[in-house]
Design brief:
- By secondary structure, the protein is mostly beta strands.
- It has two domains: 83 residues, no CATH class; 132 residues, Sandwich (Jelly Rolls), CATH 2.60.120.
- The chain has no helices and 20 strands.
- The strands form four sheets. Strands 5, 10, 11, 12, 15, 18 and 20 form a seven-stranded mixed β-sheet that branches. Strands 3-4-6-7-8-9 form a six-stranded antiparallel β-sheet, with no helix packed on it. Strands 13, 14, 16, 17 and 19 form a five-stranded antiparallel β-sheet that branches.
- It is globular.
- It starts with 9 loop residues before the first strand and ends with a strand.
Length: 228
């Protein structure tokens, strides 16, 4: 089904963990599995004032079934047959996290910007964030998370960063994902990107990295990385 306009939907804007404003969302995209509403936040260029994008997911009946906040929290809603909400599951995306400027995190490309780490088109392609070489990940399925913003989300759809989960002990890539410019839903607004990975029982205790490889196509700022 083709996308359509819906001027009734509202956007809620968050900054510093608090709602700081709202405005009308501009577009709802329809997919076979339901509806995904993207909420656009304001453009704020300063590191201290950067806000975040909240995204809303709807089912085929138009019922809200989930949200993802750029602050790093997802909420999933369960409905009964009468469309009454029966359960809300709130999941922190960063129960274990490292600031991009943590001593456990390394960099080859970019510079510190407050507690975040940034790179611009004047920097070369390279390792923007690597580490923390954590050995505490248990066996099983996990999700790595990266909180980042970009300065322009609609100039083109170039690859901006490549995310991966790297087993430094075994020199093995556990998961990889390329993030393109238009995957950010607003400019200068933090958004969380996830990367599922699995750690085998034989690899427990290995040193894992959550890496960001800069691609020299846009200004990017990484706030933190982590996993659950």
């Amino acid at each position: 089904m083709m996308p359509r306009r819906d001027h009734r939907a509202r956007t809620y804007i968050y900054g510093q963990g608090k709602r700081t404003g709202e405005r009308m969302a501009s577009e709802i995209s329809y997919f076979a599995s339901g509806i995904v509403l993207t909420a656009f936040s304001a453009v704020l260029p300063l590191a201290a004032s950067a806000q975040s994008v909240t995204q809303y997911s709807y089912d085929a009946q138009g019922r809200l079934i989930g949200t993802q906040q750029g602050e790093g929290v997802t909420s999933d809603y369960t409905m009964d047959p009468a469309s009454n909400r029966t359960r809300v599951r709130v999941t922190p995306q960063f129960p274990t996290a490292w600031s991009a400027t943590s001593s456990a995190i390394g960099h080859i490309v970019g510079r510190a910007e407050g507690s975040a780490w940034s790179a611009s088109v004047y920097d070369p392609v390279g390792a923007m964030v690597y580490g923390p070489y954590t050995t505490g990940v248990s066996a099983g399925s996990h999700v790595a998370a990266f909180r980042m913003l970009v300065d322009n989300n609609n100039a083109d759809n170039s690859a901006v960063v490549i995310l991966d989960v790297w087993d430094a002990t075994a020199s093995a890539e556990l998961a990889v994902r390329t993030i393109t410019r238009t995957e950010w839903k607003a400019a200068f607004a933090y958004q969380v990107f996830e990367l599922p990975f699995t750690l085998s029982a034989s690899s427990v205790g290995h040193a894992l990295e959550f890496r960001v490889a800069y691609q020299k196509t846009s200004y990017v700022r990484v706030d933190k990385v982590g996993y659950r």
